[in-house]
Automatic annotation (TrEMBL):
Keyword field: Annexin, Calcium, Calcium/phospholipid-binding, Repeat
Gene source species: Characodon lateralis
Name the UniProt record assigns to this protein: Annexin
Listed SMART domains: ANX
This protein's domain notes: A pair of annexin repeats may form one binding site for calcium and phospholipid.
Sequence similarity: Belongs to the annexin family.
Keyword Repeat: yes
Transmembrane regions: none
Length: 146
């Protein structure tokens, strides 16, 4: 739990004006190839260099993380998400894999998970369905039905 708290604490948020929702600020000196190399090295390191993975992925926007994943795939000839899934575990794995999804993809997967199996996680459903705009709900519905 402490690792997740530290991880979330490193997110860079743009709060110059009251945002509609939290926004990660794009990295200024962004280089997808350099970041892909750092991730690949962190995964290959004996014991996995979790801090490097955290440092890179929490300081990039979703579109930058997608570019890193594409550069990683070109470089390592394998999917970065699969590699991260194999290298990480527990709460850190959950958070990192969540970061690799768009907001709508993440919300749709959380809704799917909250109604899967016996019982329903009403808190998750209420939080997502009551805190999103109509446009966001339409996008979540589209992604959910894919």
């Amino acid at each position: 739990m402490a690792m997740v708290s530290e991880f979330l604490g490193q997110l860079t948020l743009n709060v110059a004006q009251e945002p509609l929702y939290p926004t990660v600020v794009p990295a200024r000196d962004f280089d997808a190839d350099r970041d892909a190399t750092r991730i690949e090295t962190a995964i290959k390191t004996k014991g996995v260099d979790e801090q490097t993975i955290i440092d890179v992925l929490t300081k990039r926007t979703y579109s930058q993380r997608r570019e890193i994943a594409f550069a990683y795939e070109k470089r390592a000839k394998k999917d970065m998400i699969t590699a991260l899934k194999a290298a990480l575990s527990g709460s850190l794995e959950t958070v990192v894999l969540g970061l690799m999804k768009s907001t709508s993809q993440y919300d749709a997967s959380e809704i799917r998970g909250s109604i899967k199996g016996l019982g329903t996680d009403e808190e998750t459903l209420i939080e997502i369905l009551c805190s999103r705009s109509n446009d966001e709900l339409v996008e979540i519905k589209r992604v959910y039905n894919e």
